[in-house]
Structures are given as C-alpha cells and as structure tokens.
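Now read these lines:
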Amino acid sequence: MHYGEAGERLLTGMRAAVNALLATGNNVILDEMPVDDSIMPAWRRDLRAAATFWVRLTASLPVLEQGERARTKGQQLGNSRGHFDVQAGDDWNLIIDTDDLTPSETAARDPEGAGRRRLTAQS
C-alpha cells in the first residue's frame, strides 16, 4: 500500500492540524497506524510538541487477524497482514505487547517511569 499525491497532501494536513492544536495549548493523544515506512518518520520530523511520549502497541499476526475476523463494523480482512511488516522504527518510550491483554488492561498500563522498556502481560 502507498499513498498518491492526494494522500500525501492529506497526511501533511493532518500533521499541520495536530500542530495547530498544540500551538493553541491543547494536549493531544494521537493514534496512528502506519501503513508504510514513511509515516512515523514524518510525525517525528514535523510534530512540534513541547514534550512527547511515544507508545507502540504490538501484537502477533494471529492475534491481529483474530481481531479482524471478530469485527462487525468496518471489517477489512487482510489489513493486519498488509501492515504487519511496516517498519515503525525503534525509538519508543514504551512498547506494550498486547497479545494477552484486553483493551482495558492495555489502557491501564502506567507509563510513569516506564522509560524505554517493553511491557507484557506479566509486567
């Protein structure tokens, strides 16, 4: 998958919109699913936040595909497989392996003092 010219303009506009929110004093939590290797470097290059905390959620391909099959709205079988090998980089403050976590358990992870470490269900 790749973006054409219109897609590139859209992504550039999204980054500008987030920066506008930050510039007016808003806190922002951004949820991004990188569809190619250019997405995360562009965010890291263009984001103008005073402070950032980068979190990466990971899961195995079987768990991701199980989630795809379970969706009743917006089901796009094959998305996980198509995006699984996208290189998101390795510069993360926190990496959470979600294979054995519910969404609520994942959200409850406390990033305070997490530094740069990987969390699993046993952490």
